[in-house]
Amino acid sequence: MSLLEVKDISMSYGEKILFEEGSFELYKGEHMGLVGDNGSGKSTLLSILLDKELPDIGSVIWQKNIKIGYIDQYLKSEGNITVYEYLKTSFKELFQLEETLNNLYEELSENYKENLMKEIGDIQDELEYRHFYSIESKIDRIVLGLGINSFGVNTKLENLSGGQQTKVILARLLLEQFDVLLLDEPTNFLDYDHILWLSEYLKEFQGAYIVVSHNLEFLNEITNCILDIEFTKIRKYYGNYERFLKLKEEYRNNYIRNYNSQQEYIKRTESYIRKNKAGVNCKMARGRQKQLDRVERLSKPNSKKKPMITFRQDLAFRKIELMDLEVGYDYSLLPKLNLKLNSGDKIAITGFNGIGKSTLLKTIVGVLDPISGDIVFSKDTKVSYYEQDLNWENQDMNALEIVGLNYPDMKTEEIRRELSKCGIGAEDLTQPIKTLSGGEQSKVKLCIMTLKEANILILDEPTNHLDKDTKISLKEALFNFNGSVIVVSHEKSFYEDLVDKVYAVACNKQQKIKNN
């Protein structure tokens, strides 16, 4: 019996069709990856499964009494509590049982009753059976595995960054005993070591899950089946991501061959009907029309061009030097940093999430003031900066309007062309930015960045949300850029053969920024 049955669901936004008559099932023990191009409808499908959105048609049927875990976009908690207190809420029912047990002990000390002893024994058995006394070690395992210890379990929730909040939400999710997990880009705010840990954890998970991720190495490790959205169709493949790619290539080639064959048949039939609808063969023409009306027409294969990202370059000599630089807010996040970036240098900065990498970049580009020390630019330096957060001043504006606001002298056709180069399809150009997927929004940000003439590019987690083709194009564009590059990234496969040096930052007072 399946845990989930999806029957003939269709979903569209205006003229944009995400998927049509999609059906699939999820069984116990299936570790499913959900894949597709940016904007294909992956996050929308998860929302439909969670009953947060309704499909145009079709049904979603969950097995009764199934516990479903999902990472909410925002951390929800009441009061000014710490990370540890928040994680303990995963075991709220067990702590309530413990409180009942303590009350019974207190009552027993005042008035011995046989029935109290039995009730106490039953609760003790329940707590032991549900591993109540190993809760602390469970929490410690998750805290270490996801790197939460880098900012501390005694930190108040209200003081966490967005990435830290996501880690804590994920930790709480893993601590609860869910039958099914729905995870949308769980690795976005994790470092390389923590992604490896999560990969091992999920492989051991006894329940089922559906994971959306553009980290293909991670996806390959944790999946035993793949759900693919392409050509507005939802199709399930068995095996990991590598096997899926081979099977998909066969399916894609067959689909395109069948589509072209069908188009030829339709063209020939329509031509025959036009020529004979009023002649001696009109009866036969009507018969052909009935046959044509019964044909289940295949959707046109995805015709989106692969992104062709390029950066506008200013070739003047440039450099940045950090001298005893301290960054942070009310207190310093990192030790004093000394770093010189010469003309043409390309470097990656790594380190635990929440340690201060984004704060460092924001300080370098002038969004934040340094606590102390100096940042020295050569006078001809032109910096272009990519911030990882998807923040928009007006979320009702579309991609054309947003790019036009940043570059008012550009004509609409020029903007269309530049957005197309970054992988934004024509159907998404006039949609409100808030309705676009995270990947499509990231492409709009990249487009804005590519239009600025620069000799130093500074990018903070640029691969978050991006599909495979866009990552490849972005990496090629950075490789071909003759200026200097500073990139913060948790994807080793993205930066390792792109940069000249990798710098790891650490928060302990003895360790300075150092070359790996």
Automatic annotation (TrEMBL):
Gene3D superfamilies referenced in this protein's UniProt entry, alphabetically: P-loop containing nucleotide triphosphate hydrolases
GO molecular function list: ATP binding; ATP hydrolysis activity
Name of this protein: ABC transporter ATP-binding protein
SUPFAM superfamilies: P-loop containing nucleoside triphosphate hydrolases (SSF52540)
Matches recorded under Pfam families: ABC_tran, ABC_tran_Xtn
ABC transporter domain mapped to chain residues: 4-256, 317-513
Matching PANTHER family: ABC TRANSPORTER ATP-BINDING SUBUNIT (PTHR42855), DRUG RESISTANCE ABC TRANSPORTER,ATP-BINDING PROTEIN (PTHR42855:SF2)
Keywords on record: ATP-binding, Coiled coil, Nucleotide-binding
Keyword DNA repair: no
Domain of life: Bacteria
Record has Ribonucleoprotein as a keyword: no
Stretches assigned to coiled coil: 87-114
